[in-house]
Amino acid sequence: MDDPLIERARDALAEAYVPYSEYRVGAALKTADGTVFTGCNIENANYSNSLHAEEVAIGAAVSAGHREFDRLAVSSGVRDGVTPCGMCRQTLAEFCADDLTIVCDLGDSEVATYTLGELLPETISASTLADADARGETEPPHDAEESS
């Protein structure tokens, strides 16, 4: 039997706007209370302004007041086991613990399962920044200022 969260991710990719890559991605993010938010990729002619399915889903969840998450499912139109990209992993790390389960669709009821910590070890976090600030490392090195 297929995972219901994967099914929601598959449904979401139907709405993807992908006129440039034609690579559809859908994501379904389950909150701690069981609410599911979906997202699809939304491309832009200026590629850097494109939105990824995972960030659309987490943006919708956070906008609705959710801050605790249970699982994320990701699917592409070709069922290739796509994982969240580095940028999406960092966005997830802002709101999710290292043990967030990420399920990636391989098709035919097959999935690859990871934790966020496996996909993004040694993430940059609020504590990373606080530790750097406590050590006085938030200012640029003196030689960097001199070379400009």
Automatic annotation (TrEMBL):
<dbReference type="InterPro" id="IPR002125">
    <property type="entry name" value="CMP_dCMP_dom"/>
</dbReference>
<keyword id="KW-0378">Hydrolase</keyword>
<dbReference type="GO" id="GO:0005829">
    <property type="term" value="C:cytosol"/>
</dbReference>
<dbReference type="GO" id="GO:0008270">
    <property type="term" value="F:zinc ion binding"/>
</dbReference>
<dbReference type="InterPro" id="IPR050202">
    <property type="entry name" value="Cyt/Deoxycyt_deaminase"/>
</dbReference>
<dbReference type="InterPro" id="IPR006262">
    <property type="entry name" value="Cyt_deam_tetra"/>
</dbReference>
<feature type="active site" description="Proton donor">
    <location>
        <position position="54"/>
    </location>
</feature>
<feature type="domain" description="CMP/dCMP-type deaminase">
    <location>
        <begin position="1"/>
        <end position="127"/>
    </location>
</feature>
<feature type="region of interest" description="Disordered">
    <location>
        <begin position="129"/>
        <end position="148"/>
    </location>
</feature>
<feature type="binding site">
    <location>
        <position position="85"/>
    </location>
    <ligand>
        <name>Zn(2+)</name>
    </ligand>
</feature>
<dbReference type="InterPro" id="IPR016193">
    <property type="entry name" value="Cytidine_deaminase-like"/>
</dbReference>
<protein>
    <recommendedName>
        <fullName>cytidine deaminase</fullName>
        <ecNumber>3.5.4.5</ecNumber>
    </recommendedName>
</protein>
<dbReference type="GO" id="GO:0042802">
    <property type="term" value="F:identical protein binding"/>
</dbReference>
<dbReference type="GO" id="GO:0072527">
    <property type="term" value="P:pyrimidine-containing compound metabolic process"/>
</dbReference>
<comment type="function">
    <text>This enzyme scavenges exogenous and endogenous cytidine and 2'-deoxycytidine for UMP synthesis.</text>
</comment>
<keyword id="KW-0479">Metal-binding</keyword>
<dbReference type="Pfam" id="PF00383">
    <property type="entry name" value="dCMP_cyt_deam_1"/>
</dbReference>
<dbReference type="GO" id="GO:0055086">
    <property type="term" value="P:nucleobase-containing small molecule metabolic process"/>
</dbReference>
<feature type="binding site">
    <location>
        <position position="88"/>
    </location>
    <ligand>
        <name>Zn(2+)</name>
    </ligand>
</feature>
<feature type="binding site">
    <location>
        <begin position="41"/>
        <end position="47"/>
    </location>
    <ligand>
        <name>substrate</name>
    </ligand>
</feature>
<dbReference type="InterPro" id="IPR016192">
    <property type="entry name" value="APOBEC/CMP_deaminase_Zn-bd"/>
</dbReference>
<keyword id="KW-0862">Zinc</keyword>
<comment type="similarity">
    <text>Belongs to the cytidine and deoxycytidylate deaminase family.</text>
</comment>
<dbReference type="GO" id="GO:0004126">
    <property type="term" value="F:cytidine deaminase activity"/>
</dbReference>
<feature type="compositionally biased region" description="Basic and acidic residues">
    <location>
        <begin position="132"/>
        <end position="148"/>
    </location>
</feature>
